[in-house]
# Entry
Amino acid sequence: MGRVALAMASLVLTLLALEAVSRVAVPQWQALVPQRLMTTDRNGGLAGVPNFDGRVASLYGDFDVALQFDARGFRNPPGADPAAPLAFVGDSFCQGWGITPEESFPAVASAQLGVPFYNYCAVGADLRDELGIVRTWLPKGRHATTVLTITFENDVLAYPASSDDGTPTDAVQGLSRNPLSRWLMNHSALFDVATTLARQSTTIVAFVHRMGLMSGIPIVASSGEESIAASVRMVEQIHAAVGDGPFVVLVVPPRPGQVEFLDYDAFVAALRRAGFDVIDPRAEPGVKISTIPHDGHWDAATHAVIGHRLAEHLAAIGAR
# Structure
């Protein structure tokens, strides 16, 4: 018993020492974990914390930017109108993770077109979350332009046939983690640094997606349901929910080094066969994708070129 007690005491002291080192080495640790700024909306769907005012930062110091949300929990300029003629739906890529709001491609495209926009993008959202956001927040009966951003490596999943059974989405369930985990997230630099390092590993990310451990929905369901077809079906539901008006799908290719279990080109082709207007950055002339180091999200330069190309596309199809 004495040896066990000594071992336990040594473990506790080691963890305390690592905690102290983490706090000194990574002073921005409280800005690393995106779950801090996420919550549920009035209908139990995924959204940002209303009126959030804080910062998000890189573990490696690649970015440290201010992040503010409006009263609905979305990143928008002051006074943005939810009924704006241009709406963006998606996840952290279209929210502009790691860059200023003015640098994000929604802001760039809006400025080039001279058209107001509203950003309905939420960190960690998959297609089912985005369907809930659209149904909750977009004004009914609108006739405006909608740009849906799909992050290939996170969003193309074997979604169940029904999305109306009232079951919370996996991102929402992830916010209701056990009390110990939430306490550690809010109070332990060591915990936040360790989980952030795990998210940086493309191998770990690929594995948890393959098994359905991150989203709860695997890439391939046990029933054998094919995820590309299931994801196209979800896009069709989002399209039906946003109302009339031009609808453009912008696909975010896998980040560099990501293990690909699915065929990216096959997904893009499936969207086009379903009749969707798709922008594929890999196939766009003159578009070179660059990302924030150690992160994988698009950097400001990529947002600028995507925003410019998107504005040209929207102008060409008369989406004003």
Remarks:
- The two ends are 74 Å apart (CA to CA).
- Residues 109 and 307 are 5 Å apart (CA to CA).
